[in-house]
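Researcher: Next sequence.
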Amino acid sequence: MSIPIFIIKRLIHAIPILILVSMLGFAIMRLSPVDPLGELRITPGIAEETIKAEEKRLGLDKPLVVQYFIWASGFLKGDLGISKTNQPVASRIMERVPNTLVLVITSILVSWCIAIPLGVFAALRWRSKTDRILTILASIGMAIPSFFFALLLLIFAVRTGWFPVGGLTSVGFEKMNLFQQFLDLAHHLILPVTVIATISVAGIQRQMRANLLDVLEADYVKMARAKGLPENKVINKHALRNAINPLVTLLGFEFAGLLSGSALVEMVLQYPGLGRLILQAVLELDLNLVMASLMIGTIMLIIGNLIADILLKFVDPRITLG
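Model: Next structure:
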């Protein structure tokens, strides 16, 4: 099956997934015992007509099924509705999506560029002191809660003043040249990327180590060594390409998982990303904003898995798309 046909089929299969996710998310939000207009109802001096007008604006005066179809029809037309702050949801989402994509993609690149070599290095020195040290460090990295780690780095940044806290750019960013803008953006990304990548590196490094150890015991690797092939060729051409396959498969889940995993980190470090916006929307029961964010997260998971499957085809030509 060619790649374009494979992509089309996967996108068609994604339609029922999006429908089910939207129905489930909508039902959970609407059936919540918390009243979305609770704060408005208890505010002194608010007239009943004002509350009813707000119910009508948010569509709360209609049956649940009717509310869902109104939202779904608007979503298909590209109309994401109005948030509780009386701002278009689409504009609020689009303000944060580029920031989150920069954070997620940078974290993935950093974690993979560090974790893969460390995993290979540890596997080739199995049971040595280096291997044990790396295993201990990976265990510590997986055990540290991201929220706690982000808080520690926040305290460190405030006390030392070495890193900016909050925001993505500095004042006067527009007046900087391209190189200065790049440095300023990288400076603001150091803290959030460090928190997210540290936890990701720990898991990927341990899995890469375990995969490579299994592959090194395979018969075809022993045969390659018996033929007298150089050790670097045995590792890079035969063992490494097969050991990395499971990690490529998990790339899609990691891409979507970082969206939810970065929410607390963004909240602590005051990073203007989508995860922080979603968390605030959930706490405020902002239905339109939560639903739009939920659908974006689902779409990211689908696209991430699609990219992972295509990359897996290039990594291992024996795999067929179908």
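Model: The chain has a mean pLDDT of 79. The longest helix spans residues 178-216.
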